């Protein structure tokens, strides 16, 4: 074997190659770069984001749709650290009776189809929300009226102090009225037109959505980190249902940001990546007992179920710190009027057995399940497997199943597919004794949504406990129109304590929305309103 | 004048193997032992399991295989070995159920299309063709989506989806036997159609199915596990093998045993049934080489 010392020409070649590589790397960083506090800011690139679930439409009433809507639509107001700040509306005032809100709108905003944003656009969108968002009535919005070109009134059927928080969440994005009236439902579903930072280029169903930058964007909310077009040119939004695949995409550099980090990787994610974690508003993942029929109409059975379950330990073990235990089943910890009831129903098997004995479930069958009048103590729990409850959540429920069996309760888990879940299967009072799920919402009037016996004269499908108590319902309605903050908090405290004490709705874990971000991407932030929506407009790469 | 039917020479049963004694291959012996082991696990799981398969232990989660937990534990501390053992019953029952249903449907449709009059065989044939136009898994997915996820749905969906293939085979065999010389001879000798079908057509047409059933059980376990893996099978906390794979997939990067061992169980059962099926097929067809 022979070796050669580098010749002069070869040395020159190496130097030239290195120089060329430097030039090329500069070129490959796109249209520009500037100095950022944390390194050279690289712009005009593509952000690849791996999300978990793919909704059928870009906008609508499901939280997964709000994630997408936020990229394309602006809203009237934004929520920032407990305060409402301007967005498309520069100012607003509420009438004496609280039922009319007058917004003054920006006059320099244009939708990406060229339609100007004005009061008529808000009127058209108010009608569209009523049509397209199933639970819109719980905001108490009725109609809207254009006072002049840039002043609009929103009318409510009753006072709603939380209306601004609701309007600032991702569901209440403003779409182009021209697009709403002239384009097909399909087009407005998959490629709606907004005035937001991103434009849908293509929705490849089952794969992802390609967003391109809105180069004319000038209407960022007051709490954004900059106003103007997004720093990056494209946003490649992938749907990757499998958590491990998302994690692998992040660790191999195929994705810059991933949603919902697998709990087994949570510690690593915190160490090696920037991590965002937001406990959503509304209601946490909670148990809702059927109080209309079956064995769970007996408070002692409900309480025994809870005493028999080491809920805190299960959550710590299964979620490994990525998701917090939550004892409150009515309001999420991120709600302003939240009451901490974590200490209610500690793990106490003896107490559980005592309560079941008192309730008359004294005889055990050969399987160790308690019986009364020959009927076994069976609690059926249908749950949206995947759509509402992740695989970790399912494991946690199986741990509950095992623990309650030790006191003689037969918990039957009935996983439902996404189609079955959204088709409302197993939702009748005679089909289940227990429900499990969350509800993302921006305000404490989630209590009205979840516990009102009727909605529009018909049974309230969102009331999974089948609770029907006019007196309590009256308290809920009174709390949500209370304008004095102290009285309002006291009223909500009383209600939360009631639902906990009565063991009607009891929490299990906070509904969190987390994301892990590559160290080379900075500036991604999470909306602190109910949904924890991700904002990519301010995101930039660093060298 | 009555004509007494003459005795018909027995229909040629499938060619017998060569005259020399067959030596069963070692692989088939091992496969049979594996099947016996799994059958014991299915019938008497308590004999083999070391723990309660549903007992969680929140202080012993994701434990590696060890002396106390031979195949490790899952994310809520359940013993994986015991779960696989107890899951054998569900997995094998689903496999057997699928084959039983598939065979019933296939026999009815196969005989109807092979022996029935044209107004029966025509529509049945068209129906078979339509069903065969769908890939098996797609048809099974469609059916399980309609029926909802459960063990019964798995059996029905996979059974119905795999039946057309078997039905076509039965039809072909039936037609082939129906046209054979010994059947013609039997008819010529005055045997009734019923006798001919019972004594000659069915036994000869169905002989190859014995091997197919053995092969099919293994395949059915794979189909059913696949659907369970997709979340379309039995409900938790069952330890059906596909469900175990599904539950373990989120932990795969930190707990390899949750995927490897249930996967191995599926492979072992499928491989064993397949080897046994092939052996039977070879014996039945008489071309077994010892």
TrEMBL record, chain B:
**Which InterPro entries does this chain map to?**
BP-dependent_transpt_permease, MetI-like, MetI-like_sf
Q: How does it sit in the membrane?
A: Multi-pass membrane protein
* Source organism of this protein record: Aeromicrobium endophyticum
Q: Where's it mainly located?
A: membrane
The name on file for this protein is ABC transporter permease
Q: Which family does it belong to?
A: Belongs to the binding-protein-dependent transport system permease family.
Q: Which UniProt keywords apply?
A: Cell membrane, Membrane, Transmembrane, Transmembrane helix, Transport
* Entry's Gene Ontology cellular component terms: plasma membrane
Q: Which residues form the ABC transmembrane type-1 domain?
A: 88-277
Gene Ontology biological process terms in this record: transmembrane transport
User: Could you tell me where this protein is found in the cell?
Assistant: Cell membrane
Report the superkingdom from the record.
Bacteria
List membrane-spanning regions: 21-44, 92-115, 127-147, 209-234, 254-276
Identify one Pfam family in the record. Answer: BPD_transp_1
């Amino acid at each position: 074997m022979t070796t050669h010392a580098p010749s002069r020409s070869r040395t020159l070649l190496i130097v030239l190659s290195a120089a060329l590589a430097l030039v090329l790397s500069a070129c490959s960083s796109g249209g520009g770069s500037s100095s950022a506090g944390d390194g050279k800011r690289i712009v005009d690139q593509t952000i690849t984001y791996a999300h978990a679930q793919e909704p059928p439409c870009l906008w609508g009433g499901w939280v997964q749709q709000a994630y997408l809507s936020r990229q394309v639509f602006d809203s009237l107001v934004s929520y920032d650290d407990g305060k409402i700040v301007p967005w498309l509306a520069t100012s607003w005032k509420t009438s004496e009776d609280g039922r009319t809100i007058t917004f003054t709108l920006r006059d320099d905003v244009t939708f990406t189809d060229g339609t100007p944003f004005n009061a008529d656009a808000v009127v058209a969108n108010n009608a569209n929300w009523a049509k397209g968002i199933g639970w819109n009535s719980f905001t108490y919005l009725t109609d809207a009226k254009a006072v002049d070109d840039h002043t609009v009134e929103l009318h409510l059927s009753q006072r709603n102090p939380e209306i601004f928080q609701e309007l600032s969440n991702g569901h209440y994005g403003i779409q182009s009225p021209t697009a709403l009236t002239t384009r097909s439902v399909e087009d407005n579903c998959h490629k709606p037109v907004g005035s937001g930072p991103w434009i849908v280029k293509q929705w490849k169903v089952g794969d992802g959505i390609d967003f391109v930058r809105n180069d004319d964007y000038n209407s960022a909310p007051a709490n954004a980190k900059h106003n103007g077009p997004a720093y990056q040119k494209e946003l490649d939004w992938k749907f990757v249902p499998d958590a491990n695949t998302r994690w692998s995409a992040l660790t191999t550099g195929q994705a810059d940001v991933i949603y919902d980090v697998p709990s087994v990787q949570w510690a690593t994610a915190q160490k090696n990546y920037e991590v965002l974690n937001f406990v959503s508003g509304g209601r946490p993942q909670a148990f809702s007992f059927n109080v209309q029929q079956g064995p769970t109409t007996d408070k002692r059975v409900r309480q025994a179920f809870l005493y028999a379950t080491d809920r805190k330990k299960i959550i710590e073990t299964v979620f490994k710190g990525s998701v917090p235990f939550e004892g409150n089943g009515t309001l999420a910890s991120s709600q302003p009027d939240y009451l901490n009831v974590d200490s209610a129903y500690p793990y106490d098997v003896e107490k559980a057995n005592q309560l079941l004995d008192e309730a008359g479930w004294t005889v055990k069958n050969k399987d160790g399940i308690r019986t009364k009048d020959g009927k076994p103590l069976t609690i059926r729990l249908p749950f949206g497997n995947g759509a509402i409850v992740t695989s970790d959540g399912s494991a946690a429920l199986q741990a509950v199943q095992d623990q309650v069996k030790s006191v003689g309760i037969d918990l039957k888990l009935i996983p439902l597919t996404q189609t079955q879940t959204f088709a409302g299967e197993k939702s009748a009072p005679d089909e289940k004794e227990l429900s499990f799920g969350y509800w993302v919402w921006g305000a404490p009037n989630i209590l009205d949504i979840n516990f009102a016996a009727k909605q529009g004269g018909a049974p309230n499908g969102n009331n999974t406990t089948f609770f029907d108590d006019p007196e309590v319902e009256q308290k809920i309605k009174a709390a949500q129109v209370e304008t004095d903050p102290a009285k309002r908090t006291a009223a909500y405290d009383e209600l939360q304590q009631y639902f906990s004490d009565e063991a009607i709705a009891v929490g299990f874990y906070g509904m969190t929305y987390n994301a892990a971000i590559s160290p080379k991407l900075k500036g991604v932030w999470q909306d602190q309103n109910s949904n924890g929506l991700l904002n990519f407009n301010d995101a930039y790469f660093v060298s | 004048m009555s004509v007494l039917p003459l005795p018909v020479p027995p229909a040629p049963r499938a060619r017998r193997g060569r005259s020399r004694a067959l030596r069963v291959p070692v692989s088939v012996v091992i496969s049979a032992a594996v099947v016996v082991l799994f059958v014991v696990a299915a019938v008497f799981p308590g004999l083999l399991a070391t723990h309660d398969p549903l007992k969680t232990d929140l202080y012993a989660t994701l434990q590696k295989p060890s002396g106390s937990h031979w195949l490790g534990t899952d994310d809520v501390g359940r013993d994986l070995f015991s779960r696989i053992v107890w899951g054998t019953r569900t997995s094998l029952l689903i496999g057997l159920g699928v084959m039983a249903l598939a065979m019933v449907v296939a026999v009815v449709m196969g005989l109807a299309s092979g022996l029935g009059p044209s107004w029966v065989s025509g529509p049945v044939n068209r129906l078979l063709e339509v069903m065969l136009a769908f890939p098996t898994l797609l048809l099974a997915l469609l059916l399980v989506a309609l029926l909802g996820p459960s063990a019964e749905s798995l059996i029905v969906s996979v059974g119905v989806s795999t039946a057309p293939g078997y039905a076509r085979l039965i039809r072909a065999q039936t037609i082939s036997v129906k046209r054979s010389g010994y059947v013609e001879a039997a008819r010529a000798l005055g045997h009734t159609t019923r006798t001919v079908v019972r004594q000659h057509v069915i036994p000869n047409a169905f002989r190859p199915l014995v091997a197919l059933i053995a092969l099919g059980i293994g395949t059915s376990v794979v189909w059913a596990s696949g659907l369970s893996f997709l979340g379309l099978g039995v409900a938790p906390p069952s330890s059906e093998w596909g469900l175990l794979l599904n539950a373990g997939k989120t932990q795969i990067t930190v707990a390899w045993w949750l995927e490897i061992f249930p996967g191995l169980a599926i492979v072992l059962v499928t491989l064993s049934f397949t080897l046994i099926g092939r052996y039977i097929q070879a014996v039945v067809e008489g071309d077994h080489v010892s």
